Amino acid sequence: MEKSFRKLYNLIFKGSPQKRLQYDLQRSSFVSKAKLKEQEALYRLELKNYTNPFFIRNRPSSDYDVLRQVIFETEYETACTALELNFQAGEPITIIDAGANIGLTSRFFAERYPLSVIYSLEPEPQNFKMLLKNVENFGTIKPLQKALSAEQGKRFDIGKSMRDGADWAKTTQESTTGTIPGITLQELLNEGTGFFDLLKIDIEGAERFIFDSQVNQDFLDRTKVLVIEIHDEFNIRTPIYETLRKRGYSILEQGELTLGINTKLIHFVS
């Protein structure tokens, strides 16, 4: 039955991704109201259990796919469980959202942890513009149009898209004339409390530079929970796992995400 419905669904909306998105929003049990701002080609969404609206771009943007994964499917739930088993309710926490896209993951964490401080990094200009719309009512979120860098003083340009070329797959390229400043994890540690309670990294393959064996990785000793999407196109999963284990991390795989628990700082039973 499900297979037949999917075939019919694809047939009806073939060649019309905008109508498909409209249909998906109308039938979603999570969406209370969806209003299309046609001139801007974006939707203003009111979601159940959320006070402030969300904004996503119309198709062919991949924004709805991110919304579905992060908000509807709560893909960061296990990471939240690890935090909540080790923190008192209402305790302030520091979160890094590196590769924040349009700010939906930062919103998810901010709504769940209203006393948190969230550094939300997104280098791509159009994504960052959407991020600002999504986080404008959240003073705990600090938006930074910067690229996560392995070394201080580096600059970057936006490179080619990875995989399916979606908005969530924009890469960065180091360039001496780059328009986007880089920021290291050590610099972020210096700005905050000296610890990351949760470090989320989804930077489209650039994690290979952050975890390069020649780069200082002392930030791992000051990170309690790490959530990273490892891009296997670069054959870096094994060395990243080796690095984490040497630093005392337990590793869990959760779909596309890898969860690292720093057993020197935190306890977690799955």
From TrEMBL:
Q: Name one GO biological process term.
A: methylation
Q: Does the keyword rRNA-binding apply?
A: no
Give the highest taxon in the source lineage. Answer: Bacteria
Positions of the Methyltransferase FkbM domain: 97-250
Q: Name the InterPro entries for this protein.
A: FkbM_mtfrase (IPR006342), SAM-dependent_MTase (IPR052514), SAM-dependent_MTases_sf (IPR029063)
Q: Which GO terms describe its molecular function?
A: methyltransferase activity
Q: Which UniProt keywords apply?
A: Methyltransferase, Transferase
Query: Under what name is this protein listed?
Result: Methyltransferase, FkbM family
